[in-house]
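Illustration: VPS35 endosomal protein-sorting factor-like.
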Amino acid sequence: MVTDTKTRRGARKGSTSSSSSSSSVPTDPLSSMLDGTDPLSMFAAASASEAPRMQHSTSAGDLGRRKRDKEEDPLGPDFEPWSSKRGEILARFTTTEKLSINLFMGSDKGKAPSPGSAVSEKVRTRLEELDDLEEGSQRELLNLSQQDYANRIEELNQSLKEAWAADQKVKALKIVIQCAKLLSDTSVIQFYPSKFVLITDILDTFGRLVYERIWTMCSDPRPLPDGFTVDDVNDTAKETCLNWFFKIASIRELLPRLYVEAAILKCNRFLSKTGIQEILPRLTAMIRGIGDPLVAAYARAYLCRVGMEVAPQLKDNLNRNFFDLLGTFRQISGENVQNQLVLQRVEVPEYLTLYSPAINWILQCIAYRAPESLLTEMMERCKTLGNNALLLNSVMRAFRPEFVAARATDFIAMIKDCDEAGFPKHLLFGSLGRSLACADPPESERLTILNEAWKVVTKVRSPQDYINCAEIWVEFTCRHFTKREVNTILADIIKHMTPDRAFEDAYPQLQSAIRKILLYFHNFSVLFSIERFLPFLDMFQKDSVRVEVCRSITDVFLKNQVEPTRDPVILNAMLHICKTMHDSVNALTLEDEKRSLALLIIGFIRMVSFGRDFEQQLSFCVEARATFCNLEPVLVQLIHTVNQLAMETRKVMKGNHSRKTAAFVRACAAYSFITIPSLSNIFSRLNLYLLSGQVALANQCLSQADAFLKAAVSILPEVPRSISVEGKFRSSENFLLDFINNFLATLLVVPDHPEHGVLYLVRGLLNMVQDYTWEDNSDAKVRVYTSALPLLAAMSQETYLYSIPKMDSNETLYGGDPKFLSEINKLCETLIGQILDHLKALSKDEQSIRRQGALAFSLFGVVLAHGDLRNNKLSQLSVNLWNLSHKHGYCETRMSVRTLECIKHQAQQHDMTHLTDVVQRLALQSRT
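Result:
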């Protein structure tokens, strides 16, 4: 602020504009306190004199302005906020050099004036306090790493919050001023963008705290509405708000005064409707006084950021900041900047990239919902500046992709005219490629665009710079061209990234290229016919990355391959990819990871179909078994596939092909019989033996069926008493009982082997059950015996309940032979005797009695349903079982009543009258 206090002492308005001037020699405005006058008092007087006019003015222009502001759209979700850019900037702009922090925190002496002091004394106290902010004790922290520096800044942020919470407002202001001063330090220039991010976080915190304090002061007695006006703000809040601006206006140094006032810019809403519109141009003009172009660029970025938050409709100020920034570009080639770069050993291209976050942000603000004509204007300004590469790059990234794509050819011409030394052209083509990946250029220009871009990209020597740009243009190529052009791109990438194993440092970019290819190539026959695609995959030699890429390819294949395929190109490629996933499994692989990989491979196997070429399908399964032998779920799926193949073969091949069919089915059975023992899960083996045996029976392959069923019986003793289910150990008893019941149901149609005894499979199963080590106090063995009785009853019938076409069961082999029936009866008597012995032993305690009643009632149901109750022994047995089940009253009454009603209903049939006597002997009992 430059004023002439001698000639304008009584009339000046307290302007803080840096553009004010006087013909007399400039003086220090703070020194005027010696004359009894200070700028803050005059600032207050000017505000007081303008307040009535500001509050009572209701001109047509003011009303129109209010209406426009009200109708102006706020920032929408399509505007990318600053918060989304913080992480990228902090990660990108790093340094290994040592950093330092210089803080002049002042002293903590208090200087509260007495209530009766004169105005000049108050002014003197205020100015001494502000002087103390800038001339206090120095605190310097040296040799800080980047992380240490960030930690110290965060500590200052916490100190600010703590001081504010303790009502130490002066200390809080000290912290903010000193942090803002740090932004003038460019000693480690490549770290400056990250330093800007860290320190402006503190400024944002301070601005929020001040705004919230004044807001709270306005909320008494009722909360302030969101759309409040100056008239809604009470005098106390206005006075407090003015006091903050007075303190900030008295900060001597330009940079902290600018930043701190910008931080509380939003607070102008409490003072004036149009205050922000007047202050933004003044702050913009103040930035012209900053000598370092990099520091000035970020100061403009911060002003644009707070400006977009509080008044996004004020586009003129954004434009003014941008045009001022353009004017500072000539400083970059000046002596001061060049000497600084030489001193810090920083090349010009690296230095120019430091401007990118600031310029990108300013242009993003300008381009937000801007008309297409503005892009034309910006392009013309770029040409005026000799196609400044840094500016051109930011323009392409800021404006809508549709606008950029429509002018892609013009941008390429401008890029050609840029100076290669200042800003590499491949970065410009990278920015252009990002826009073209989102919007389509004119169709007639696409091939020219790709050729021009790739001429530049392919000449980039640095592998990292090359892949950063090439990865962007992969999407444009896939989006608009065929596999021929994509193959050319992939070949060029392989050529650049293979020497010196450069691909090891570019896995993220290579993965991104794969994802983009998969996004546009859903026809895998075309994709895998791209000659360089699989060699491209070979560059992923880090296990975790290679597996992740293969997973992504398989996942896309399963989502988009609708019809089963037999295409050899697809099968060979997918087998290679799935084998890569399979081979990554080792002893340290987690079960969830194994399960996930297995599901992907199973999905691929299910999509393979050779139609009626069953032998080719079986050959594929043989190859897949050898390839995926370490993933048990995959082997299980292959066995299911082969069994299904055997069933389909019987349906399709008939007549003259019967011998060939039988041979093929035997080959399928051999496949399963060889594969099943390799499974570790005992129940998988049991169920697959049973399933494969059933398939063999359905195809009249009796010897194969017999082998499967005997194998299942032979491994029953291996079943453990507990198994792991979803990570928890559970008793295997129920699983074993379910299997045995299914096995018994199958045995009905299995004919006895001529070289073995009668019912040899049934006897073998029951012997295994007898010898199996069941859990203590278990009724499982008796339940198996009870389940076997219906099977034996069904085997004694002249016509079985079900049979297999073209295959003779025991009903045909024995034809109701009395010896066969006698064997069945003896086995039934043995089983019933075993059950009754068990029931007698269950009488020790209440729990045993409950089990006894349940088992007795279950056996009663079997005898009633499958026994001939004309036999006096069976009739008496049924009555005894009924009485035993109801003896202690633990049998469910509702079930008993329904059972009796069912028996009475059956007794009314002409051939079931013998049940009448049984019903009369069955009585309901209850526990007393």
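Reading the tokens back as a structure: Residues 844-927 form one domain.
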